[in-house]
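dude i think i finally got it to work??
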Amino acid sequence: MQASDTDFMQQAIALGRRGLGRTAPNPSVGCVLVDADQHVIGTGWTQPGGRPHAETQALAQAGAQAHGATAYVTLEPCAHHGQTAPCAQALVDAGISKVIFANVDPDPRVAGQGAAMLQAADVQVESGLCADQASCLHQGFFTRIGASRPMVTLKIAASANGFMRTPEGEAPWITGPLARHYGHLLRAQHDAIITGAGTLMADNPTLDCRLPGMADRSPVPVVMSHHDRVPQACKLAARDDAARVLFYTQAATQTHNFTYIQRPELKPADVLQDLANRGINSALLECGPTLAQQFLASHLVDAIAYFEAPHEVAISGESDISLMGLDLSGAFVAHHHLILGDDIYQSWQRQPQQEATSCSRA
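look at this
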């Protein structure tokens, strides 16, 4: 059976997923070049650090075969001169005859100008194919451009009775190994990971990706702490790249080799705006119920990644889930469901009328 335009665009979307968490400040874009005989002659996706762009990668692979071909791109080709030349012009120079892209680029430097540049060179242009699927790739970029903050995914691992911790003296893991591995995959697909002082003191996390072969895909660690309080044997401070840790605090003291950002107040919105200014498109929020509640109450959570274990823990009182005021029946809609060993994973998206939609599927 002959492949369709939709098939090629879905291939481009799959390619774009490879760059998630690695392309900031640029979006993670996928591109497929197809000749007149429906043969794929070039593929590409945005490379680490945001360049080379997907179109550049695909054109380099196709070489002279690109003349007369069709390009399937998940995002409108750029039209501005940054650290690289415009991709729209590169497609024109290569002799591409038709460009089909899924999403319009909201960056004011592009926003239709890429399509206009192509049309001015007599390249056929179509847009909107698989737009909803492609927007999951670009949602962090869209949120940063449109709302001046990264897309935020709140990650929760909880027992059946709603606790995100185990009794003192017991092993700290709520969920099993499969769920934990999936959680590390989510880390790899986000630009930053945010936690609070409470989690830092209680768990002493490293906030990295520990999947085999994926250590270089660890997100930027972000800590929000009113005081420069860290464990005596702080794993974050022991990291080789400790200077990469962004430590937002009200404290004047700076006792570790972190990058400190002192603020008179620690408001989630202010921290997110600063992260956006640093080019961060997406952030995974891994924290306790107090900080999670602050983000939720401010309508700054775009997606929920919820891992639920089948067992209860022997802790009494109000559950952590209740303390954070999480209401999945109102602001969020179920998006994706997985069985991970004995655990259940469910992702939820904020309703479009509440905020920009987002995707938390790995």
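The longest strand covers residues 332-340.
im so relieved honestly
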